[in-house]
Design a protein that fits this description.
mainly alpha, Four Helix Bundle (Hemerythrin (Met), subunit A)
Length: 129
C-alpha cells in the first residue's frame, strides 16, 4: 500500500515538528558545561550528569539526522519504502515512527544484526565530511 499525498503532508508536518523540537533540545547544552568544585563528590556528580547530557545530545543528533533523511525521502519520492526489501512500510509503523527506513521484518533483522542506528549515523558522517 503506497502513501497518499494527504498522508505525505501529514508525515511532513509531523517530521517538521519533530525536527524543530530536536533543534530546540540540541541548542540547550547547559548540562555539558565542565564545572569545577572543591568537593570531589560534587565533581563526580557533575561529571556523571555531563556524561548523561552528552549521550542525550548524541542520541538526539542521530534522531535529527533520521528525521531530516525522512524529509528528504518525502522530497525525492522514496518515503515509505523499505531500504532493504523495497516494499512499502506499513502505514501504522510510519504513523508511530515516521522516520523509519525499514519495514518491521527488515528492522527486526537489522536489530538482531546490530544495525539499528547505522543509517542515520552513517548519514551524519557523510554530511560531516
Amino acid at each position: 500500500m503506497r502513501t497518499t499525498p494527504s498522508h505525505l503532508r501529514e508525515y511532513q508536518q509531523t517530521l517538521a515538528r519533530e525536527e524543530s523540537e530536536l533543534l530546540h533540545l540540541l541548542w540547550n547544552r547547559d548540562g555539558i558545561a565542565i564545572e569545577k568544585s572543591a568537593d570531589q563528590m560534587d565533581e563526580i556528580q557533575c561529571a556523571s550528569e555531563r556524561d548523561l547530557a552528552i549521550r542525550n545530545v548524541a542520541r538526539e543528533s542521530i534522531l535529527l539526522a533520521g528525521v531530516r533523511a525522512a524529509l528528504g525521502r518525502i522530497q525525492d519520492g522514496s518515503f515509505g519504502t523499505c531500504i532493504e526489501c523495497e516494499r512499502a512500510i506499513n502505514p501504522k509503523r510510519l504513523a508511530a515512527v515516521p522516520w523509519a527506513t525499514r519495514c518491521i521484518a527488515c528492522q527486526e533483522v537489522a536489530d538482531r544484526d546490530g544495525r539499528e542506528t547505522t543509517e542515520p549515523a552513517r548519514d551524519l558522517l557523510v554530511h560531516a565530511a
